[in-house]
Design brief:
13 strands; 400 residues; 2 domains; 6-stranded parallel β-sheet; 7-stranded parallel β-sheet; alpha/beta; Rossmann fold; globular
């Protein structure tokens, strides 16, 4: 079976491609012409030459104009060589236009992208009409040309969209196997790793710096952003009350509130305990996480994202706010949560850090259990479930 994966937001589909190939499926990745540089496969592997034969670029720019002027005949001809299609982004609209079946749609945005909001300047009537046209195509593609949707649907905004578009019965509640671990390293990171090793423990947070009210938009405004100000204050309180410890907090120059975070850190006089890094590809981030102790995604958001998955993939403790109880989560997803330092306030952060230094072995054991959790529910174990889903859908497709 030849599987075509369309789109590569956050390199998630490149991860799925590798997992499926490991499991014996002939999976290929098709990127849009305007794929973000940061989400190209070479940013996610040290072995790009191994995968080049399976990576292709579609003659499609993923935006409104690209969809309006889609070369249907050319795209359809490319897809004729494939048996099964998994897409994200504009894929449902594309498959509606070329009158083909999209077997699985995996949204990369909470709420299912392009069904309510396409980033356009709506002050001009023509753009407003184009926006409505594309939303209409996307919704029709989901309703008429898409067989299944895979979305965890933990976020309420996603659940609401599925209900509003009458797609609930199509949805399969699964995560995306977005992180693929492989051997390899970047020797240029040695100086950073050596620095990390010089501290008692390392907190690693490569999430976006968005926590001021004026910086929050869309879903970020709904869940309160990343809450990194609370992390900084709780971390500062821990340092001041525990002068014998020498911790390190790693942040990245990423997001609207980088300068605000730096100013807060300066005001709290903890600059020597914070290391700022430039944006880097996931393959390098994963290497650094391997030398950290605690990974923080968000103190205010309701669910972790890629940052959390990368921490869990490397078997680290995750500090995160999550509004669901363990029981609610298990009922929703069918399995238990990984071990999480639940944190919503600076007091929570300080409390967890105090407990961490007092009970280090306990947390090391929990970190190991998080790696096992990841492998079963978000890594190779999940990829095997995807393979079964693909084979079942394909079987039904062949019968028809």
């Amino acid at each position: 079976m030849r599987v075509a994966l369309i789109g590569n937001m956050n390199n998630n589909f490149f991860s799925i491609m590798r997992y499926l190939r490991d499991l014996g499926l002939d999976a290929h990745l098709f990127m849009y012409e305007n794929q973000y540089e940061h989400f190209k496969p070479e940013k996610d592997t040290y072995k790009i030459d191994k995968y080049r034969p399976y990576i292709h670029t579609l003659p499609i720019v993923e935006n409104v104009k690209g969809l309006l002027f889609l070369d249907k005949k050319r795209v359809k001809e490319i897809f004729r060589e494939y048996d099964f299609f998994i897409g994200s982004g504009f894929a449902p609209a594309i498959f509606y236009k070329i009158d083909m079946t999209l077997d699985i749609f995996i949204p990369h945005d909470d709420g299912i992208e392009h069904t309510t909001n396409i980033p356009l300047d709506l002050r001009r009537l023509l753009k407003k009409i184009a926006r409505g046209y594309v939303i209409n195509l996307q919704v029709k593609g989901l309703q008429k040309n898409t067989t299944k949707i895979i979305a965890s649907a933990i976020q309420e905004v996603t659940n609401n969209t599925l209900k509003r578009l009458d797609l609930t019965k199509k949805n399969i509640k699964k995560y995306v196997p977005m992180v693929y671990l492989e051997e390899g390293d970047n020797p240029k990171l040695k100086s950073i790793i050596d620095k990390m090793r010089g501290y008692d423990f390392v907190i690693f947070s490569h999430t976006r710096q968005t926590w001021r009210e004026e910086s929050l938009e869309g879903s970020l405004k709904e869940d309160g952003g990343k809450g990194l100000d609370r992390l900084i204050i709780g971390y500062s309180n821990f340092i001041k009350k525990n002068p014998n410890y020498n911790p390190l907090l790693i942040f990245f120059e990423y997001g609207q509130d980088v300068e605000a975070s730096k100013e807060l850190i300066k005001d709290l006089n903890i600059e020597e305990y914070v290391l700022w890094l430039n944006l880097m590809p996931r393959k390098d981030i994963l290497q650094l996480i391997g030398h950290a102790d605690i990974v923080v995604d968000a103190i205010r958001a309701t669910m972790w994202g890629g940052v959390g998955w990368e921490g869990l993939a490397k078997g680290k403790i995750l500090m995160q706010n999550i509004v669901q109880s363990d029981e609610e989560y298990k009922k929703e997803m069918g399995h238990s949560l990984p071990f999480i330092m639940r944190a919503f306030t600076e007091e929570d952060v300080e409390k967890h850090l105090n407990d961490f230094v007092s009970n280090r072995q306990f947390y090391l054991n929990k970190a190991s259990s998080n790696k096992e959790w990841f492998d079963k529910y978000a890594g190779i174990g999940l990829a095997k479930e995807y393979k079964k889903i693909i084979e079942e859908i394909y079987k039904n497709k062949e019968i028809k």
